[in-house]
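Holo prediction. Input below; ligand is heme C.
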Amino acid sequence: MRQPRFQHFASVTTGCLALTLVTVASAPQSRVVVFPAMARSEPEQLVRLGRQLFRDKSLSNPPGLACVSCHAPESGYSYPNGAINKFVGTVPGAVKGRGGNRRPPSLAYAAFLPTGVPHYDTNAIAWVGGLFWDGRTPSAERQVVEPMFNPNEMNNRAGGKPSPEMVARKIMASTSAPLFAEVFGKDVFKRAATEICALAAKAIASYERSPEVSPFTSKYDAYLEGKAQLTPDELNGMRLVTGTLNGRPNGLPFKKSAHCADCHSLSKDLSKAPDIFTNSCFANLGVPPNPQNLFYNMTDKASNPEGFNPSGPDYVDLGMGAFLYEHYGWPKRTAHGPDPLRILGTFKAPSLRNVDKRPRPSFVKAYMHNGVFKSLKEVVHFYNTRNLTTQEGEVIDFTRPDPYADLKGKPLWPRPEYLDATTLINPTGMGAGPGSRTPTMTNPGGLPDLDAMQIGNLLLSEKQEWAIVSFLKCLSDGYFERPAPPRPEQKKKATR
Ligand code: HEC
Ligand code: HEC
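Structure of the complex:
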């Protein structure tokens, strides 16, 4: 049995900090995260095959559900059904009556996220890495097969286990089979089912990396390239999000920071890496549970033995904590008890690109891991006021044994899904003073609290909240057309 070794992490702090803050606090200098190169030239046929498989509804069990059913371009590669987003938030799978515990995130730009299992990054002062809301999958290639076998998603399972044979048979019988054989060789279907699945994953991952899925064609990109101007509101939003006048991580401080880019970070050097608006760090923001989460009702062991939820409505999503402690070994703990790695209830900060991308203005999108929020204004208002009540000046202190005892006003937000002051960012709700970029606050132990002011009590005005929303709307792809990048062989000719 693996022995848990937590001593190494004794001084771990939670949350995420972008390098801007780290440098101010005179910590090490190197980059937070190394992103893969921006210009990916994926083999054309492989991308075409991946594109086709991504849309192939015959690959689920029963047939009817493709990747694109949950990750549709018109909604920013997130869920395309506005009614489900609005009234539910998590989504149904291939089998009738089954549904998942989390909301489909956008998969655009996922190819630019750091790969590997989540690890503690001493420069970022945060856990970083991995795909999915909890970071449990190290690469796009490995990620692709998971939805194929998930009982609450595409459900390719037999005898209680994932069935690569089932997927391989379906690919062989699908309209993609000829192209599959063209790309991987005419004998490809003689290979083992697991290999066939891995090749399908390779094609889909290649498609995910292609400029079709990650095109960098938002108004923000046009602005960066000098092809568009931001309105005063959008500009104000950009400055609040980044905390700097020019919107770059090393720019002069703006009069106010909403600290968004501490986690939804920008590139330190645009010639080396694009702005993805995340450093893939993990944090417990104190997001409330979503009462409509389909997983609460997924309690029938008989009909769904591998995907049922034994806790019913008491289920709490522990995010990366659940996955990493499963791996390292769970510490002895009571409910909300000691959490040596400080990871319970933490989720990956998603890219903010395409957060507002929707097929029409009235289309509702759901936000956060459980889809509890239904608009960007609501999200920003939550960041701004998580610790506040209807009583002016009252601040909820989540480090108290019962933070809700003796409150004069009514809390503005429901209780966090996972309430634990050791992983919650800024649990005491220290306010972000005007102009404050440097973490000078101390936590209850008297140590500098680097996460203070990141969320909970940002002291933003209504107008500033809207400005942030205006800026987020600039991150939707499709604002302009970008000519296809030259193929490598053409490039060579051109330079000759
Ligand atoms: C039933 C809906 C559904 C289907 C079908 C589906 N997904 Fe997902 N996808 C999700 C959900 C929900 C998550 C988040 C799961 C989690 O974090 O635990 C997710 C997460 C992802 C992520 C992670 C993105 C990130 O930022 O970490 C990628 C990539 C992805 N899916 C690709 C695919 C591919 C490729 C397929 C087809 C083989 C697919 N999905 C099919 C619902 C779906
Ligand atoms: C401490 C790190 C951190 C800071 C600071 C932060 N975020 Fe986040 N953000 C996250 C994490 C982590 C999530 C996912 C949380 C979850 O689902 O429980 C998230 C989710 C979001 C989402 C939902 C995206 C989606 O696809 O569901 C939006 C929008 C967002 N953040 C915008 C902002 C804005 C605007 C700010 C500044 C006001 C901000 N964030 C500050 C870490 C952070």
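The beta strands are 119-121, 126-128, 157-158, 161-162, 282-283, 347-348. That is the main takeaway for now.
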